[in-house]
Amino acid sequence: MNQRKKQRKNQWSNELNDIIRGASGGFLFGIPLLYTMEVWWIGSHTTPAEMSIAIATTFVIVFLLTRTEGFRKTQDIRWLDAAIDTVEAIAIGIVCAAFVLFLLREITPETPLQETLGKIIFEGLPFALGVALASGFLSGDRYQSSDSEKEPSINPTVADIGATLIGAMIIAFNIAPTDEIPMLAAGISPPWQLAIIAASLLISYGIVFVAGFTYQAKRQQQQGIFQRPLSETVMAYLVSLAASAFMMFFFHKLSFDDPWSIWLNYTLVLGLPAAVGGAAGRLAV
């Protein structure tokens, strides 16, 4: 009986890890599109028939990706298992997209149902592609060498700061010049700012320390004030916020004449995708 309970517990634990890995892949792949008003507009004006066609098309693509990559540690051999995982991948993508759209106040309880569904589906389907590619993301890191006992040639804290800055800058560079940041920031109140901070920290922590990408166990064993999972996550988020503020200033979306509240609001809104980019940067080096 105890053995059976232990096996069941392990199954649930493995399933949760797979879901987190899939969601992390979805965020790495789909977060930039969540800041694209053209996709919002398409979702707002799509019909139920067009939604069905989009879901069916994505199902075929995700099914093929699941057969080759997938979001589980083990690949699907049977067609039925791949089909079930495809449905799960699409569901994960839609849930993640809905969560971020609600967090950014792009959908609210007052939004018409068809518009809400359209936005969630057209934003969620790219997320589903990222879920299906999760196991293939970022397969190498700085710990990999011919000698497994060899220490990294660069200080881990310096490497993490640099990698976070590079990843955050790449994402922020593509989003900062657009009008989406001011549009989203205008509708976000202080309680939602706190929610964005919490979500940014949680998502980046999950990508680096929970999803199972690239030598996760070794990262958790690093020594130093910024080399523990929680402290590294907070440090990386602050670096991502600094990169976001700089990119908003660089593209003249912010100036020194603007009040601090505008700087804070814009930086937090851009800081969410920048934190995802920073997490990807830490995994890639």
Overview of the structural elements:
The chain has 285 residues and is mainly α. Helix content is 72%, strand content 0%. It contains eleven helices and no strands. The longest helix is centred in the first third of the chain and has 29 residues, at 2-30. It is globular, with a radius of gyration of 20 Å. The N and C termini lie far apart (45 Å).
Keyphrases for this structure?
285 residues; mainly alpha
Mean pLDDT, nearest integer?
A: 82
Q: Report the major sheet.
A: none
Can you count the helices? Answer: 11
Helix content: over 70%
Global morphology: globular
**pLDDT under 50 segments (min length 5)?**
139-153
Secondary structure category: mainly alpha
For the termini, the CA-CA separation is 45 Å
Q: Would you count the extended β strands for me?
A: 0
Strand content: under 5%
Compute the gyration radius: what is it? 20 Å
Quick recap of the structure?
The protein is an all-alpha fold and 285 residues long.
Topology:
Layout: H1 2-30, H2 37-45, H3 48-68, H4 79-103, H5 113-132, H6 156-175, H7 180-186, H8 190-210, H9 216-220, H10 229-250, H11 260-284
Helix pairs in contact: 1-4, 1-5, 1-8, 2-5, 3-4, 3-5, 4-5, 6-10, 6-11, 7-11, 8-10, 8-11, 10-11
